[in-house]
User: Which sequence fits this backbone?
């Protein structure tokens, strides 16, 4: 029995090594993709081809699946406007498949749930069924600062269609953006897609520290927006500047 366990202990890392090394070369470019960096034309396709060429291990690692999903996602995003509608739809379908595959390995990946919602909505239009993807993104990662910068605007754009629980998470996310001093992004969300929910959003930031709350109020005032931020008094002359 001990011999058998020893053999298994040797075989498992040997089987897992290809997955580990397949993920290593992609780590830096994947980090750049998540950061929104731009690549030379064809560079992202090259990364995808590299991962595709790797031998598939018996025990697939979720980081390899995630890397493939993110690469296909970037290719699909860059295809819009550069390729024909048919080619762009094909790339979107490829990205959709890879994202779903990655989520099978890690159903708690908040960012990929968001991207699944975003891709589906962009290429197929609004569908109430896809709102579940957005809800899953909030359920698995309700407090994710870097995700909030993309997610909050998308959620506010369809706020009235969300469940009460998800609506509250969207509002809390907006509050967190103000508190974390993502002032410009929060202001744009309020003035744009969140305008219909402005009273609820503004009321939510009453609990925010006074410094970021004042910064947010000044940002709105500079845009000539006459709204009252809880606990902040802005000289009306600011609105006329």
Assistant:
């Amino acid at each position: 029995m001990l011999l058998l366990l020893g053999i298994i202990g040797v075989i498992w890392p040997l089987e897992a090594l290809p997955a580990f090394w397949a993920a290593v070369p992609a780590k830096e470019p994947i980090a750049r993709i998540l950061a929104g960096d731009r690549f030379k034309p064809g560079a992202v396709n090259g990364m995808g081809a590299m991962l595709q060429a790797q031998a598939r291990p018996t025990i697939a690692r979720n980081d390899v699946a995630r890397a493939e999903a993110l690469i296909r996602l970037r290719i699909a995003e860059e295809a819009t406007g550069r390729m024909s509608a048919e080619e762009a739809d094909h790339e979107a379908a490829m990205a959709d498949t890879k994202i779903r595959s990655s989520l099978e390995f890690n159903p708690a990946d908040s960012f990929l749930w968001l991207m699944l919602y975003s891709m589906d909505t962009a290429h197929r239009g609004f569908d109430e069924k896809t709102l579940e993807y957005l809800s899953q993104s909030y359920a698995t990662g309700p407090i994710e600062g870097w995700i909030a910068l993309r997610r909050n605007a998308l959620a506010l754009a369809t706020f009235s269609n969300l469940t009460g629980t998800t609506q509250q998470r969207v509002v809390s996310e907006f509050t967190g953006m103000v508190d974390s001093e993502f002032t410009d992004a929060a202001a744009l969300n309020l003035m744009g897609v969140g305008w219909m929910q402005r009273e609820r959003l503004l009321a939510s930031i009453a609990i925010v520290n006074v410094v970021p709350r004042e910064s947010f109020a000044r940002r709105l005032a500079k845009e000539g927006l006459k709204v009252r931020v809880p606990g902040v008094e802005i000289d009306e002359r600011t609105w006329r500047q």
